[in-house]
Amino acid sequence: MTDDNRVADVARSLRALVDAASPGDRLPGVRELSRRYRASAVTVTAAVGQLATAGLVRAEPGRGTFVTDRAARPEPDYAWQTGALGPARVDADRAARLGGYGSPDHVPLSWGYLAPELLPQEDLRRLGARAVRSTRAWAMTPPAGSPDLRRVLAAPYRVDPQDVLVVPGGQAGLVVALRTLAEPGDTVLTESPGYPGALLAAQSAGLHVVSVPADAEGVRVDLLADALERTRARVVVLQPSYANPTGAVLGADRRRELLDLVVRHGAFVVEDDWARHLAIDGPAPAPLLADDAHGHVVTVTTLSKPASPGLRLGAVVARGPAGQRMRAARTADDLGVAPVVQEVAHGLLTSAAWPRHVRRLRTELATRRDALVDALRTTLPEARVTTVPRGGLHLWVRLDHGVDTRALTAAADAAGVLVGDGRHFYVDEPPAPHLRLSFGAASPAQIAEGVRALGGLLRA
Question: Has keyword DNA-binding (predicted)?
Answer without folding.
Answer: yes
